[in-house]
Amino acid sequence: MRFVMVVLFSSVLLTGCAISPIPKNVATMHVQSRADFDALRPHVQVGDVIFRLGATKVAGGLLDFSKTVASMSDSDFSHACVVLQADDIMVADITMYGIERRFFRDWYISGTENVVVKRLRPEYRDLIPKVMGTLDELIDQDVLYNVEFSDNGNKFYCTEVVDHIFRVNGAPLADRMRIRDMPHYNVFVAFCCLVGGIDADQEIVVAGNEEIGLFSSPMLETVVDLRDGHAGPAAVAKLAQVASP
User: What is the pTM (predicted TM-score) of this model?
Assistant: First the structure.
């Protein structure tokens, strides 16, 4: 029972990473994935951080935990990962199966909204080789998912990977926060913590918003923001305005 509740809370709190039922609109998602990939590809670089709102649906698709995650942290996002390869946009992501290297188009169709790409500001970009070296080490170690949210350095959840590779190189992107300090910490979350044996005073890493979490980092600048929609003509025009040269 404890393990079940821990897994449930993991999904609710942060992941956007678990298996979902086959969506009815999968063909549309493939088309959108290709369109957004073509729009994003010229602007993405190694070391960029991609934020998104995932689609982790459970209970036969009746409940979307990713949206619950975003709501709890007052965020447009449930997830963050790092770009490993720019040409075909490969990302380093972590799921319940551990750390994975995934092509953007495959990663994207698991359910994606509110895509924002952020990049280290010029004065911090000398960190990229060190940060990517640390990420390569995690991939070589084939680290597993941190279902207990414990700070053990051997297992990680998705946003924790992003936090870790910068933090261990002396450049934390943002402050961590206690579970109980999340903007919309409520009775349900408190109950899950109690049953799952998770300390609500445990510090965690959230994707966040302009004020909290990774998204708020003053070290990052926005390269692409598609929260207003996918890569239709208006979004592509917007990319030309906001993307770094």
Answer: 0.81
